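Severity: low
Component: inverse-folding endpoint
Summary: output formatting inconsistent between runs
Steps to reproduce: submit the following structure tokens with default settings.
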């Protein structure tokens, strides 16, 4: 993963190390060891909104990176399944076909759900705008 920093000026390097450790799923004790502070200090920092926001920002970045890598791998996975469908034994071809069909259906359902959600958000915004206009 490329190096990046979300650190506001008021966050010390030890706090940043702890935030990265916590965002990656480490325990408070492990984060304390990485930051070279006590677990009690980690708990104090967690009580500060700015530190919690930093941890949340790193978590979001980690999730984004994972999703990006999964998306990149998806094309290769589909190609492998297609190759198995064409060149495997009957049982392997059947398994690959079932997997591809299942993935295709889930992908369509997800895309439809996203379109529906976007449509609902658009309609809600239009209704809110009309309500505000009527109230003026």
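Observed output (run 2 of 3):
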């Amino acid at each position: 993963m490329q190096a990046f920093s979300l650190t506001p000026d008021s966050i010390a390097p030890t706090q940043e190390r702890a935030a990265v450790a916590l965002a990656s799923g480490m325990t408070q004790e492990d984060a304390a060891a990485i930051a070279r502070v006590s677990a009690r200090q980690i708990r104090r920092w967690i009580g500060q909104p700015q530190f919690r926001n930093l941890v949340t920002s790193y978590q979001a970045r980690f999730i984004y990176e994972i999703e990006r890598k999964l998306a990149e791998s998806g094309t290769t996975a589909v190609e492998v399944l297609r190759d198995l469908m064409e060149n495997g034994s009957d049982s392997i071809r059947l398994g690959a076909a079932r997997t591809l069909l299942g993935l295709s259906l889930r992908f369509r359902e997800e895309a439809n759900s996203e379109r529906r959600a976007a449509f609902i958000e658009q309609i809600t915004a239009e209704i809110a705008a009309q309500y505000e206009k009527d109230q003026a």
